[in-house]
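Anyone? Bumping this.
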Amino acid sequence: GQQLNQSPQSMFIQEGEDVSMNCTSSSIFNTWLWYKQDPGEGPVLLIALYKAGELTSNGRLTAQFGITRKDSFLNISASIPSDVGIYFCEEETSGSRLTFGEGTQLTVNP
Amino acid sequence: DTAVSQTPKYLVTQMGNDKSIKCEQNLGHDTMYWYKQDSKKFLKIMFSYNNKELIINETVPNRFSPKSPDKAHLNLHINSLELGDSAVYFCASSRGTGINTDTQYFGPGTRLTVL
């Protein structure tokens, strides 16, 4: 399957700081999805991106689909303690979901 | 009201046993999935069923056998459990087969511990 690299693997930040994480691949994708997983729960979709260059916001979250269709980033502004969790990117190509990124573990210190 | 439910939430069993995990979705979705999340939190798809038919079958030992009695249920049966099977297993569903606007909804997960 495709190689999907997500970074950073973990982040420790202070409440109020902005956060940025990204996913890159050697392959071209049709869709990028970003999920958040709270401790002990299943992943929940945050943002879906369908077109190269697309920039989408969801509250304090902003994500972009790279122009080359090989990367995407997720930004969280003014972080709060409930932002704690694991953030995953997921790629979709050829109409079937196959690969998640390795996840970014976010810790927010109050 | 739970959209995607899994049972049990926790499963502790001995090596060599056979166990099943059940998944049900009440969203009217056509596609259901099983994912395995290992100790490093890496999520990997195992199977996908669309209208009770297998459409994705990743490289998974044949000790794992999914069964879909109807499109609202996708159960996972595991034979001869091994220590390496310990993980959290997530069920998910989506409206279609993943083209463009299909959001996946995940269940709460089943934490399997093999002793």
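Late reply, but here is one note on the structure posted above: Chain A has a mean pLDDT of 89.
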